[in-house]
Specification:
binds zinc ion; six-stranded parallel beta sheet; alpha/beta; single chain
Length: 379
C-alpha cells in the first residue's frame, strides 16, 4: 500500500533581502556539503559585486568560475571542471543564463546545485529544465532541479524593473498552459498531474491577484515564491507542461523568427493571452490582460513591435517548436488565412485603442501605466 508519493523538492527556499550574504550558511549545510569543496559560478554583469557581498572566507575552499554566455559549450566546460576537481556542490549566482548553465553543469557532474537568483525574469529558478543556446538555436534540457533556492530581493530590486516585471508573464502563463494540458487530456487522453496543476495554478493566481507592483517587497516575495512553485510543479509533473503550452510555442517561434522582440517572460505573457483568446475564454482573457497592463507588460503583437503579419507567421511556426505537445494551436490547426484573421481580431479585442505600441517604452514603467485605464479593454 502506498500512503503518499515522495517528492523531489529543494531542501532550502530562502526569499528575502540580503539573502546572498548568508549563502555561506546554506552551502555549509551538512546535507549539501560536508568538506567544503564548493564552486561558485557567477555571471558577467553582477559577478564582482556579488562576490564582494559574499563572505568567501567562510566558504573555505570555494573557487569562483565566470559564466560568460548561455551556451551548451559553456555549460559542458563548467561541468567538466566540476567533475575533474571533485567539487561537492556548485552555487550559480545570477540571472537566468547563469543559473541555466550552472544547473546543466551540476547535472552533468552529478553534484548538487544551489540556485541564487538575482532577478525574477522567468520560472527557471527552481525548475528541472535548463535552456541553453547551441549552433542551431536554443534547446531545453532536462536536469536535476536545484537542491536549494535563494532569492535576494536587494539584488532583484537593484536590477532593471523590466526584468523583474517579465517574470510576471512567465508565472501567469501557467493558467494558459494548464488549460492546454486539459485540452490534451480531453482530446488525446494525456494524463494530467493534479498536484502539479495545483502548484502551478496557485502560483499564477497568487501573482494575478496580488496587489502592488514590483516596487514593493510584498509583491516581489509573492512573485519569487510563485516562480519557485512553478519550477517545483514542473519537477512534480516530470516535464515543463504545467508552465508551458501554446504560449511557449509562440514564445519560442517569436524568439527564433524575430529575435529581440521581447524577453522570455514578456513573450510568455503575450503568448498566454493570445492562446486564452483562441480558447474563447473571455473571463480569463480579461483577467490576464488586466494583470499584464497593470504591470506595464506587453499584451499585443503591436506592444512587442510586431506587425500582425509577423505575429501570424510566428503562430503558424509555433507548433513546430515543440513537436508532440498538444495545445489549442494543434487543436485548431488554423491555416494562414484563419490565423491572420484571429490575430487581427485579437489585436482589436485586446488593444482596443486603449494602448499603443509605445506601451513597452520606458515611460510605461512609471505609475502612469498602472492607472491609465488600459485595463478595461480586455473583453
Ligand atoms: Zn517560461
Amino acid at each position: 500500500m502506498q500512503l503518499a508519493r515522495i517528492l523531489t523538492a529543494p531542501l532550502v527556499v530562502d526569499v528575502r533581502r540580503g539573502a546572498v550574504a548568508d549563502l555561506g550558511a546554506v552551502l555549509a549545510d551538512q546535507r549539501i556539503v560536508t568538506e567544503g569543496r564548493v564552486a561558485i559560478a557567477v555571471g558577467p554583469s553582477l559577478g564582482d559585486s556579488v562576490l564582494a557581498d559574499l563572505d568567501l572566507e567562510k566558504l573555505g575552499a570555494a573557487e569562483v568560475f565566470r559564466v560568460t554566455d548561455g551556451t551548451v559549450d559553456s555549460a559542458v566546460s563548467l561541468g567538466k571542471r566540476l567533475r575533474a576537481d571533485a567539487y561537492e556542490a556548485v552555487a550559480g549566482i545570477g540571472g537566468g543564463r547563469t543559473i541555466d548553465v550552472t544547473k546543466f553543469a551540476a547535472h552533468m557532474a552529478g553534484v548538487p546545485m544551489v540556485a541564487v537568483a538575482t532577478n525574477l525574469a522567468h520560472d527557471g529558478i527552481a525548475s528541472p529544465v535548463s535552456s541553453l543556446e547551441h549552433e542551431s538555436g536554443k534547446g531545453s534540457y532536462g536536469v536535476v532541479p536545484p537542491v536549494a533556492v535563494v532569492v535576494d530581493l536587494d539584488r532583484v530590486r537593484s536590477g532593471p524593473a523590466r526584468l523583474v516585471r517579465a517574470g510576471i508573464g512567465d508565472v501567469v502563463n501557467n493558467l494558459s498552459a494548464i488549460a492546454d494540458w486539459e485540452l490534451a487530456a480531453a482530446d488525446r487522453g494525456e494524463p494530467i498531474d493534479g498536484l502539479a496543476v495545483s502548484l502551478a495554478r496557485t502560483a499564477a493566481q497568487a501573482v494575478l491577484h496580488q496587489p502592488g507592483t514590483v516596487d514593493d517587497d510584498d509583491f516581489l516575495t509573492v512573485l519569487a515564491e510563485s516562480l519557485v512553485l512553478s519550477g517545483i510543479a514542473m519537477t512534480v509533473a516530470g516535464s515543463s507542461r504545467p508552465g508551458s503550452g501554446g504560449d511557449h510555442e509562440i514564445l519560442h517561434a517569436i524568439d527564433q523568427l524575430f529575435p529581440g522582440a521581447g524577453s522570455h517572460g514578456e513573450l510568455a505573457g503575450v503568448g498566454a493571452l493570445f492562446c486564452t483568446y483562441l480558447r474563447g475564454d473571455d473571463r480569463g482573457c480579461a483577467l490576464l490582460a488586466a494583470c499584464l497592463a497593470r504591470h506595464g507588460l506587453p499584451r499585443t503583437p503591436a506592444d512587442l513591435g510586431l506587425s500582425p503579419a509577423e505575429f501570424t507567421k510566428a503562430v503558424l511556426h509555433a507548433p513546430a517548436m515543440r513537436p508532440g505537445r498538444y495545445t489549442i494551436l494543434e487543436r485548431l490547426a488554423l491555416d494562414e488565412c484563419d490565423t491572420a484573421e484571429r490575430v487581427e481580431a485579437f489585436g482589436r479585442a485586446i488593444g482596443g485603442g486603449a494602448t499603443d505600441s509605445g506601451a513597452m517604452d520606458s515611460g510605461a514603467t512609471d505609475s502612469g501605466a498602472t492607472d491609465s485605464g488600459a485595463t478595461g479593454s480586455a473583453s
